[in-house]
Amino acid sequence: MILRPARSAGRLVGVDLARTIALLGMVATHVLDGHTASGGLTTVQWLAGGRASALFAVLAGVSLALITGGTTPQAGRDLGRSAAGIAVRAVLIALIGLALGGLETGLAIILAYYGVLFLLGLPFLGLRALPLAMLAGAWLVVAPVVSHLVRPELPDRLSGSPDFASLGDPGQLLAHLLFTGTYPAVPWLAYLLAGMALGRTDLRGWRTPLRLAGWGAGLAVMATVVSRLCTADPGIRGALFPHRVLTHEQALRVLQDSLHGSPPTGGAWQWLLVVSPHSATPFDLAQTIGSALVVLGLALVLVDVVPRHGKVALALVAGAGAIPLTAYTVHVVTKTEQVWPAEQPDNFGWYAAIVLGLGAAFALSGRRGPLEAIVGWPGRWLRRSD
């Protein structure tokens, strides 16, 4: 069995383990029923809906920080080469996303947004942890307000996931990727900045990650409680639902469902106060960043405290998180009718087994995933060309 020492223990395995959790969460929301017979959210949907994709984005920021110096950011030519490699990687990821968007899956493909998000993060690669954390805090407040103001002036959102046909109207495509789509890159930059701040932090051992999980839990709870206090006000509920009279419980049941990227375009400003999956409001961004901190912190703690044999087992589970682009692409392809039969809830076990088995196989071989190798090649070439 080939497991690299750097992957068999330490924060890289913890980050990969958290990314595996994000992948499985996204698969679960794609496959399993989101509502109970009474109309409430299922436990899986309550846990993963909106949070899994946010965790994915936060961990993207962690990865950007790690490949550009970790706790000490690169500078000068080194940073320039890394930024150029990341830019090419972002374009390649976006192209893969457009290709997957053309498949008949019924999924909102995240990769094209992901590529744009990487490009937006380039100016911040040279910053240290504290400035990045402060920027993330400011961005999660300001960006949703900007989005709320500009979306009424932008073209209508695309009817499905961006694909190569969307390139025919670049203005609509850009508006969709930045503001109006399911994973709008401008407000989602808060996730990337928060992740970069984490990647610039020394997370070795278990004490700092445990504190990180505690801070994340506090942030998530605080954002949810304050938002609930706001929506408890009849005046705010009246602004949110001007043609309906809802109790607070009824309003929360409506808000438990995904807003598919942003609050209603042209709606009242009070929509910025809600916590709802995929709403990209300040409270939603804060709550999902907090949730991401909990998962990452606990994953890092677990990897640090388990005995050696446990570390090997965790490295195998974390293998899927080490090949996220390949694993995600395989999952999307298996969602097409040509590859997989009609959707059934018990298919989740098969999807999870494919993702975990693929990751374990690559962890045992010590190789990169094929798509990771392709999109990472420009950066490796730039480093060797010095």
Describe this structure in words.
There is one protein chain. The chain is mainly α. It has one domain (7-33, 42-379). It is 66% helix and 0% strand. The chain contains 18 helices and no strands. The longest helix is centred in the N-terminal third of the chain and has 26 residues, at 76-101.
Order of helices and strands: HHHHHHHHHHHHHHHHHH
Count structural domains: 1
Tell me the strand percentage band.
under 5%
- Biggest sheet architecture: none
Report, as a whole number of angstroms, the end-to-end distance: 34 Å
Low-confidence stretches: 1-10
Average predicted confidence as pLDDT:
91
Q: Indicate the structural class.
A: mainly alpha
Number of strands: 0
Helix content: 55-70%
Using only CA atoms, what is the Rg? Answer: 20 Å
Count helical runs: 18
C-alpha geometry = globular
Concise account of the structure shown:
This protein has helices at residues 5-8, 11-31, 43-48, 51-66, 76-101, 111-121, 129-150, 170-180, 185-199, 207-231, 234-240, 248-255, 282-305, 308-317, 319-322, 324-334, 347-365, 370-384. 66% of the residues lie in helices and 0% in strands. Residues 1-10 have low confidence and may be disordered.
